[in-house]
Amino acid sequence: MLETTLLLLKPDCTTKKLSGEVIRRLEANGFSVRGCKMLRLTDSLLQEHYAHIAMKPFFKDVADFMKSRPVIALAVSGDNVIARMRDLLGPTDSKAAAIGTIRGDFGEDKMRNMVHASDSQEAATAELARFFRADELFEP
Question: Of residues 10, 49, 103, 116, which has the active-site annotation?
Answer without folding.
Answer: 116
